[in-house]
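Give me structure tokens for this 118-residue protein.
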Amino acid sequence: MAFALAPSGDPRRRRVVGSRMERCMSPQTLVRRVEKLEERVTILEQLPDRIDDLTLQVSQLRDEMRGEFSAVREEMRAGDEETRHQMRVLHEDIIARLTLLQEARGARAQPAKRRKHR
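Here you go.
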């Protein structure tokens, strides 16, 4: 939308150019403009405190997450150690069973070999 001076030449009144009916509009009063600026300044003055609050919250979140991740890592390490222990026990059990099977086969195979050689 474009604005142009009203035909009267009064700079306080403007009309909307490009609309079917050009209407005269009065500009915002100086008091209202100052009020709006004061509102904006008030909001802007609050920003540093809000940023400080956010900074503190982020810092607390980082500390909390660091502690939680450390706890998870410890739990994983403990689980890994338990898994390794169970794997060792199973490995030793399998080795013992294989040894027994080989001994049993060897005991059966030796008499058969002797019989063939006789």
